[in-house]
Structure prediction request, 347 residues.
Amino acid sequence: MPTSLRDTLTRLPKVELHVHLEGTMLADTLSELARKNGVTPPAPLDEMYRYANLSGFLDVFWFVQSVLQTREDWAMLAYESVLQAASNGVIYREVFFTPARHLRSGMSLADIVAGVDDGMSAGERETGSETRMIYDIDRDFGPSVADEQLEMLLELRRRAAHGIDRVIGIGMDSTERGVDPSVFAPAYRAAKAAGLHRTGHQGEDSPAWAIEIALDVLGCERIDHGISVLEDAALVARLVDEQIPLTVCPTANVVINPDKCVSLDAHAYPAMRAAGLLATLNTDDPALVGLSLGAEYTNVANAYGYGLSTMVQIAHDGVTATWADDDDKRRMHAVIDEVSAELLHAG
Ligand code: HPA
Ligand code: ZN
Prediction:
């Protein structure tokens, strides 16, 4: 039977490396948790989910975070998030969570990590789609809060707390403009010393030099977004040479930051791929931008005229960019090869 491009690209096995757990919260779940926890949305959701720029988006993101108040709330979100991912052909994800606001208001990191693990374990048993977690520093709180809160994570590791093995790395998100990334060097050093992987949001709303600092001062192994890399030919050459992954989110950039990114046609993604960068494809905040990974693969294929073999290569590049071990990477590459051969045959 002929199948649509959307159906084919939804069934293509994929991984995702740039997605915020809080940004996967469906509108119905948001309404339910807001009601349960006595939080009033500032506007009807369809009005709230329209953004002028990154800072306007972050206000909404922070509101979404505010409805998560108990271990069970995090578990429900995490469980639903795995089910959505699995229904989009996602076989493995490394997902951000950003607990700074919750920790500031007194919630325990142990409860958050345990809740997320409860939900993800249930989702994995049901679907087979696997998830690891990335603890994101919220840059907006500044470096000393980052150090203090990261110490809570390291303490959970020393105690082998429930679910902590699922957290395999750190990142940082939130405001980029006007923030010198190097102030977070102590937190990144502590994470490295504890054996955690490192990434960071950079180059969505900051220039190429900030990407260089994230690599050279913070020791990031990947860069989240990274679109301003194209401003600096020497940096592009280095990232191509070292195959440092960029986790790019074209549709989310257009929806979240229309000031900077007016349309998919104007997005840097095809230029990044053409330059030989390991530019992976991701949704960022799918529920807040009306997106899924199957839809994002379809958007990109349509916008840039990419055929199925290019989309399969993008899926493989995602696997290459993961922090999974070599055996798991081989297994995921093999699953992509096997299913994409069937999809090519069916098409
Ligand atoms: N950028 C920065 N912080 C974020 C984002 C983003 O796209 N999504 C959620 N937090
Ligand atoms: Zn992001």
Remarks:
- The domain at 18-174 is CATH 3.20.20.140 (TIM Barrel).
